[in-house]
Amino acid sequence: TILKFSEEENPLLLSLACGRQFSGESLDEVAEKLFQNHPQLQIILYTRGSIGSVILERNRPSLTVPAAKTEVVSTVGAGDSIGASWLCMYLWGHSLDHAAEIASRVSAFMVAHKEVIPKYRIQEFLIK
């Protein structure tokens, strides 16, 4: 019921999910087509790298969450960390946008390190 994809995955995923190439449509239009073609789909988390993310929920306005600012050392793990931490926070009961804010901070922390899994405590990201 939740789909996470990135700007880089956009063309291939949309052609597979909707059966044709999209060009020129806005993200809201593409999301609406995905929601129409996949009735079980409820939420789309669309990540846009250093720009941030957009959360689209069926029958609701989209939410845009800016990326947390950081000095990028390596982008390895950025997409996985934002997707996993957003899902975790959402399943723990945080709102869609608050989960995305926390996930943005986790991802910023990840890209600021060389290690694939730097040591951290989740509590560091929950403080607002």
Short key terms for the protein model shown above:
4 strands; 128 residues; four-stranded mixed sheet
In short:
Helix content is 42%, strand content 16%. It is α+β, with helices and mostly antiparallel strands.
Largest sheet features: 4 strands, mixed
Radius of gyration: 15 Å
Helix and strand sequence: EHHEEEHHH
Relative strand content = 15-25%
> Uncertain runs with pLDDT below 50, 5 residues or more?
none
The share of residues in helices is 40-55%
End-to-end distance: 28 Å
Class by SSE composition: alpha+beta
Report the total helices. 5
What does the average pLDDT come to?
A: 84
What strand order characterises the main sheet?
1-2-3-4
Assembly annotation: single chain
Number of strands: 4
**Global geometry:** globular
Could you characterize the architecture of this molecule?
The protein has 128 residues and is of the alpha+beta class. Helices cover 42% and strands 16% of the residues. A hairpin with a 4-residue loop joins strand 2 (43-47) and strand 3 (52-57). It has helices at residues 10-18, 27-37, 78-91, 96-111, 123-126; strands at residues 2-6, 43-47, 52-57, 63-66. The mean pLDDT is 84. The longest helix has 16 residues, at 96-111. The chain contains 5 helices and 4 strands; from the N terminus they run βααβββααα. Strands 1-2-3-4 form a 4-stranded mixed β-sheet, covered by helices on one side. It is globular.
List the helices and strands and how they pair.
Layout: E1 2-6, H1 10-18, H2 27-37, E2 43-47, E3 52-57, E4 63-66, H3 78-91, H4 96-111, H5 123-126
